[in-house]
Amino acid sequence: VPVNNRLSPPEVVALLQDSGARVLFVEPEFLPGILAERAALPGLETIVTRTGEAGTREYAGLLQPGAGGPAPFATAGDDLCMIRYSGGTTGKPKGIMHSHAALVAIALSVVREYGLTAEDRFLHVAHLSPGQNFGWPALIATETLRVMMENIDPVGVLQARQRAPTHPAAW
Fold it and tell me: What pLDDT does 171 receive?
């Protein structure tokens, strides 16, 4: 369940409750808000951060052999891969289910339409909205370098494009 990083902790809690998420990957700066709402998430078994703050698991540690991470499992194309939530512009955000096959098809379409290659640079200047999760697999699969900006800054965008020209389809 990708979560928009501009949501408030209670809004994040609502999505996690609705989806039944058992594991949450969170950046350290958002952890205090999540921990403040922890009691409202009895089904949340594990919180993972890059740095392994108290009460969380460190991401790199989960990748180590024998770390007690989730066991590999088989999936089929029709299996649920992701629940993406709408922005809630017409009321409560709605969970939209996507299969593995659908995400692969979208990623292949993005690669084909934009002609992405490992030589491309992709400048991302907006927040990580759930809709953009469709493009990320294509960027990862083609080893396209992703340049992230935390805030929308017109001068910073121009400077970044001058330092390293980026793909014209940058979000």
Answer: 44
- Report the C-alpha gap between 141 and 109 in whole angstroms: 12
Max CA separation in the chain (angstroms): 48
The whole-angstrom separation of Cα 1 and Cα 17 is: 11
CB of 132 closer than 8 Å to CB of 6? no
In total, the chain counts a number of residues equal to: 171
For residue 133, give the nearest of 84, 169, 71 by alpha carbon: 84
Q: Which residue has the tokens 């969170």?
A: 26
**What is the tens place of the pLDDT at every residue in 54-80?**
889 998 888 887 766 667 778 899 999
Instruction: Find all residues with CB under 8 Å of 102, minimum gap 6, and list them.
Output: 81
- Using 50, 70 and 90 to split pLDDT, how confident is the model at 163? confident
Q: Which long-range contacts (CB under 8 A, 24 or more apart) does 65-71 make?
A: 70/23
Closest listed residue to residue 46, CA positions, set 62, 32, 30: 62
Tens of pLDDT, residue by residue over 112-143, are 888 888 888 777 766 555 556 667 778 778 88
> Which strand (E) or helix (H) includes residue 110?
helix 100-114
Give first-to-last CA distance, the chain, whole Å: 21
Q: 78-87 pLDDT, tens per residue?
A: 999 889 888 7
